[in-house]
Amino acid sequence: MLGIESWFRDSISNDDAFELPGGLFLESSVPVSFVKVISSKSSGGYVGVSRARGCLSKPGGKFLSISLSNKGSESEGYFQEESGGVVVENGKSSKEVEKKKGKLQGAVGAMNTTKHLWAGAVAAMVSRTFVAPLERLKLEYIVRGEQKNIFDLIKTIAATQGLKGFWKGNFVNILRTAPFKAVNFYAYDTYRKQLLQISGNEETTNFERFLAGAAAGITATIMCLPMDTIRTKMVAPGGEALGGVIGTFQHMVQTEGFFSLYKGLGPSIISMAPSGAVFYGVYDILKAAYLQSPEGRKRIQNMNQQGKELSALDQMELGTVKTLLYGAIAGACAEAATYPFEVVRRQLQMQVQATKLSAMATCGKIVQKGGVPALYTGLVPSLLQVLPSAAISYFVYEFMKIVLKVE
User: Fold this and answer.
1) Residues 123, 393: contact at Cβ < 8 Å?
2) Does 97 fall in a domain?
3) Among the residues of 51-149, which ranges form H helices?
């Protein structure tokens, strides 16, 4: 031990500036004088401790990770030994240092969550605005019970409301879908990672993908259903007289109570659970299958080799075409599997308190009135809307995660 102390004294007495990064494992028997040598003054100048990473007190010894410099007044910090035998950094104990690191990690995590949510929100804004005319046609069939063919309906809307009529209610739709998709995408990625940690597998199983998708759909539905109910009320007959989003909200709460905003929650959850499971599950299965294929592995290898030289588009694991294609397939599968629930949910949202029916009664009434095909009314325009919407949504989401550097 004396030899090491002598070496430190000889080193710091040298006139030439030096820097010693590294770590030292210190035995319990290390004398206090050795620790003091590190932060003492000498003829060569003050020995500062820079980039200090702290000290851990362990049974049987301590670990000290430091960088030493004898650059005089440029010293950045020091270590000292307290009476309790714990080395502290710049007067702060190791517990305080760990607490500071914990706060920093929490801030980084919150920032990453915010960026993740924004990626999903932007994806919803872009995709919904792009397919708003098709969404309007779908609502005309479901809510108003329109019987015209799709081409006649397009002519009618254009003649009576002009081009902007096809984007009627789009702002409210964005207010609804932006937070919905943000929560949906984020919840799915979060649940999937949690299930992966619980299972301890190297890769998510198909069951875990479907389960995470279902849980994400339920979470987003509970949080965002009121805005969807308001939008449906606005585009229904007489909705124009309610006075926009705020007016419709006030009217529903005053006449039917606050929980009227959650009309159709049951069928919404029943609809969104399988919809989320299929949407995210199918996309993830297709993505995993491609990445494990020879073509996918070669693409990832090339991406790793080129590194930062790649643009955001080139950094997408599936590439542009496959991201759009797999997103469209996932969306079509989810829509076809759950469309009857969507029809029942819209009809429930249209009912007033006095004549309100249960979900089963509403479904029976729809079938009695138009047969089983009535549960699929508007499916064609809905699929025409879902295919580009899902494709664009996934594409923009994957792109924004790269641009925002979501971890």
Assistant:
1) yes
2) no
3) 94-130, 132-142
One-letter amino acid for residue 106 of the chain: G
The SS3 assignment for 22 reads strand
pTM: 0.63
- Domain limits at 315? 107-403
State the DSSP H helix or E strand holding residue 342, giving kind and residue range, or none if neither. Answer: helix 319-350
**Strands 48-50 and 19-27, bridge-based pairing:** unpaired
pLDDT digit string, tens, across residues 149-207: 777 778 888 888 888 878 877 887 787 788 889 999 999 999 999 999 998 888 889 99
CATH code at 154? 1.50.40.10
CA–CA dist 333, 213 (Å, integer): 14
Distance CA 201, CA 199 (A): 5
- DSSP per-residue letters across 181-208: HHHHHHHHHHHHHHHHHHHT-SS--HHH
Q: What is the dihedral of CA 208, 211, 216, 222, to 10 degrees?
A: -160
Q: How far apart are the first and last CA of the chain?
A: 46
Under DSSP, the state recorded for 74 is G
Torsion angle (degrees, nearest 10) of CA 77, 78, 83, 86: 90
Give residue 393's Cα distance to chain centre. 13
Element (H, E) at 67: strand 61-69
